[in-house]
Amino acid sequence: MAAQRQRPVGELLRGWREHRRLSQLELALQAEISTRHLSFVETGRSTPSRDMVLHLAEQLELPLRERNRLLLTVGYAPVYPESALDTPQLAAVRAAVRQVLASHEPYPALVVDRGWNLVDANATVALLTAGRPRPCSPRRSTSCG
Asked: 9-74 belongs to which CATH class?
């Protein structure tokens, strides 16, 4: 299997800028940099500093995971730690999620991850889906149903 080509940081930033529906001028004004500098970063004529990557990511309101991805693309170490939801450090977060799910009862509520995989659900979801076959998950190696 061929390795996936890593997109340059400028392409990634331009993609996010376009996703946010900002022109170069609008982002440059918001970030208080020149449009020329932003253009040079996006086209690869200039390599942004670590601080500039973080500044532009902040202006684009990027998720922390994407900010780390941008930093890694340029060759800088990630700044934001990433932990799985089941780690001890996130026990308070899990408890808060469970409380929100429980507060929605008797209505169904569920939590999905960025890949739309079910992470958690309240008891009402089980009543709603009773008798239905369980969907196959790519994470499970056994047959499902």
From this structure: mainly alpha
pLDDT tens, 1-25?
344 467 899 999 999 999 999 999 9
Question: Which residue type occupies 7?
Answer: R
Contact 44, 8 (CB under 8 A): yes
Which sign, positive or negative, has the C-alpha torsion 29, 31, 32, 34? Answer: negative
Buried b (16+ CB within 10 A) or exposed e, 107-134: ebbeeeeeeeeeebbbebbeeeeeeeee
Q: Which residues pair with 121 in a beta bridge?
A: 110
d(CA 95, CA 25): 44
pLDDT digits (tens, 9 = 90+) for 101-120: 999 999 999 999 888 988 89
The residue ranges of every structural domain in the chain are: 9-74, 88-128
How far is the CA of 40 from the CAs of 1, 4, 56, 81, 130, in angstroms? 33, 25, 14, 30, 56
Residues 133 and 138: their CA atoms lie apart, in Å, by: 16
Identify the three-state secondary structure at position 144: coil
